[in-house]
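Encode chain A's predicted structure.
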Amino acid sequence: MSAYVVIDLDIENPDGFQEYVDAVTPMIEKAGAHNLVVDDDCLVLEGDWRPRTLVIHEFADEEAARAFWDAPGYQPLKALRRRHSTVKVVVARPR
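Encoded structure for chain A:
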């Protein structure tokens, strides 16, 4: 069953963050995942959550999402991302 990586993204350095995007996009595709949503103008219906940019990636299942997250090749990209942005990341699984 699909798993969705939901990211609340605040980009602090767009040029540096683009370096991350360029490197991570092929890794996401290789993992069999894809972007469902990249939205920097979400409609908030209730509450005080206002993500700067909301990103949702769809993976085949939770194991695929965790394998991507823990992959040795992704670790340096996490560090790159952290230099240029702040994120909150969760995995959601349909029931």
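The mean pLDDT is 97.
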